[in-house]
Amino acid sequence: MSSGKENIFNKMNTIYNRHRLKPYYDKLKVIKGVQFNDWSDSKLADFARELKLKAQSGVPLSGLVAEAAAVVDEVIWRFLQIRLYDTQYIAGLALHDGYMVEMQTGEGKTLAAVLPAYLHALEGKGVHVFTFNDYLASRDAEWVRPIYEFLGLTVGCIIEQTGLPERKRAYAADVTYMTAKQACFDYLKDSLVYDIKNRVQRSHHYVLVDEADSILIDEARIPLVIAGDIGENRNAYSRMADIVKQLKPGVDYDTDDHERNVFLTEAGAEQAEELLDCGNLYDMENSQTLTELNCALHAEVLLKRDVHYIVRDGAVQLIDEFTGRIADKRHWPDGLQAAVEVKEGLKVQAGGKIMGSMTLQHFLSCIKKLCGMTATAQSSADEFRDVYALDVVVIPPNKPSRRTDLPHFIFSDKESKRRAIIREIVSVHETGRPILVGTSSVEGSNQLAADLAGKGVSCHVLNAQHDQQEAEIISRAGMLGAVTVSTNMAGRGVDIILGGGDPEEYRKVAALGGLYVIGTNLHESVRVDMQLKGRAGRQGDPGSSRFIISLEDDILIRYGIKEELPAKYQGLKSDAPIEDSKIRHILNHIQLVIEGQNYEIKKDVEQIRRYR
Question: Which residue spans within 35-180 are E strands per DSSP?
Fold first, then answer.
């Protein structure tokens, strides 16, 4: 789209958005006219009980909005000493009406969600708030629990470690916080029980999705699988691992263009048949042997330690690619887990036979009333509307953003980029300004921390190996002199407070320019890059961001940048950043292509499901 047409399109969107917001500003005037500040706690609690009785006796929720919003604001003030901003009211009203709300980082989405959650919970049918990860589910549930309980509602929270009886109680609560994956897995498990009494879930009456672009778009294309335990033969996988090590890349096996799949070549199949002495590898009687060989090949070639998994406490633990966290109690099915365990020299655990699967896209599409909020919705408005029938409403910020997003530093090769990142961090760190560095993997974050230590810069590392210290690390990330190196764990749902909450420290950090965010890799989606940038500049704070990347970065190589590069950049090695608008255009194009491919994958997965 040309810049002229794009500007016209953006102006039309802005006008249309203002038109959508106008009724909410009219409602806001009514809400502000309802005052409870001179009521006693007991009188306020009695009023909340009356609202609940009205809702359950058939009074439409639309007739209770103003009083419910006003009472929520008053209770939040009494417990947290916080008054809702007008923008939080507007967001809450739009969520109540079932919109996808775009609300910038630091604008108070967690409290904005309390109004629609409270309003729908009054009916007694349950409200579920889907968060980005277990940490945020626990944090948000505990933070707002006193508010809901004062209002006469119960609060539940479900994380990976939650046992069966506790899950059932949590689902029965008026408001329940959990991840979408937890809810989908429980839905699959409930479909397998013989006795209906053993189900843990009740129907999903009203679901509010936080960080909705990640959950509804990025994670939606991956089928979630529930598996039963079967025994795995370690000797078979050990044998296959030995055979795979004898195969030559590019001769005996190859990967697809985007390294999503690995496959044997004709020469590789012949070599494997000779080593296995099994005859035709593709005969029916060799199907199990072929499966085991493919698992060993996939584990050896495509799955990388400290990128896709870590080894901790003698076990392989999967890393969630979107959250950067450990995916507790999850493993790969169909022998792949066993193949990775053999690769790492570990004891083979029980394997998995697929008993049911479902994509988040299908699961969420079945929910009666769905809404969501995120800081990056507008760019995916078409997909939200086409897939989930959700229209996007953009909420203006409470305070104008002061964050400066600096142009990318683009280097010719990884080594030049590495040196540039270290120079930038060392230089800025000398001023005392806090820095958050985003990396793409555990391996990358650990390596950068080691490089910085060699330069005398100590840093806090936040990745799947240090997930237990997350809250403590985040609480210090905005303080003077802080350097925090993180995977995607710090990219969503966390507010980094300048000065750590100390007013004097805040002034010092703000005078230095606020938090400086450095991205070391572009992501498959521009939205994920924007989420990382959004850690700086919350609520009108100063801040800035910059990505420092190279033409040798894995994502660019995988998606064909070599074919797009002008000849003068082929094989170039230079410590100076590249200043070429054509290169920037190519990078933007690659991310658009990846987003388009992922959208097509989601559509294909859903189509396959429908025809089964």
Answer: 100-102, 127-131, 155-157, 175-179
Grade residue 453 by pLDDT with cuts at 50, 70 and 90: very high
Q: Give the confidence band of 493 by pLDDT, cuts at 50, 70, 90.
A: low
CA separation for the pair 352, 229 (Å, rounded): 5
Q: How many CA atoms lie within 13 A of 560 on its CB side?
A: 10
Each residue's pLDDT tens digit, 316-334:
888 776 666 676 667 777 6
Sign of CA dihedral 417, 419, 420, 421: positive
Residue 394 has pLDDT above 80, yes or no: yes
**Residue 152 contacts residue 52 (beta carbons within 8 Å):** yes
CA–CA distance, 493 with 475 (Å, rounded to integer): 13
Kindly state the tokens that stand for 56.
Answer: 């359950």
Interacting residues of 169 by C-beta distance below 8 A, sequence separation 6+:
156
| Number of neighbouring beta carbons within 10 Å of residue 579 | 10
At 270-290, the pLDDT tens digits run: 999 999 988 898 888 888 888
455 CB contacts (<8 Å, ≥6 apart)? 422, 426
The answer to whether the beta carbons of residues 62 and 30 sit under 8 Å apart is no
The CA–CA distances, whole Å, from 517 to 144, 204, 586 equal 29, 38, 23
CATH superfamily of the domain spanning 3-215+361-394: P-loop containing nucleotide triphosphate hydrolases (3.40.50.300)
Average pLDDT over residues 570-575: 76
For domain 232-349, say whether CATH 3.30.43.10 is its number: no
DSSP states of 570-589: TT---SSPP--HHHHHHHHH
Gyration radius (Cα) of the chain, Å: 26
| Candidate from 98-112, 270-284, 585-599 with smallest mean pLDDT | 585-599
Q: DSSP assignment of 156-187, as one string?
A: EE--TT--HHHHHHHHTSSEEEEEHHHHHHHH
- The long-range contacts involving 285-293, CB below 8 angstroms and separated by at least 24 positions, are 291/334, 291/335, 292/236, 292/237, 292/240, 292/335, 292/339, 293/240, 293/243, 293/244, 293/264
Rounded to an integer, what distance in angstroms lies between the CA atom of residue 323 and that of residue 477?
Answer: 18
Of residues 146, 172, 141, 144, the one with CA closest to residue 157? 141
Q: What's the angle, vertex CA 495, arms to CA 129 and CA 395, rounded to 5?
A: 65
CA 111, CA 74: separation in Å to the nearest integer?
Answer: 12
Q: Residue 571 is encoded by which pair of tokens?
A: 């094989």
Compute φ and ψ for 402, nearest 5 degrees.
Answer: -115, 10
Domain ranges of the chain: 3-215+361-394, 232-349, 402-599
Please name the amino acid found at residue 19. H
Query: What's the pLDDT at 2?
Result: 46
Euclidean distance between CA atoms 561 and 555, whole angstroms: 9
Q: Do domains 232-349 and 402-599 have the same CATH topology?
A: no
Fold of 402-599: Rossmann fold (3.40.50)
Q: What is the pTM of this model?
A: 0.78
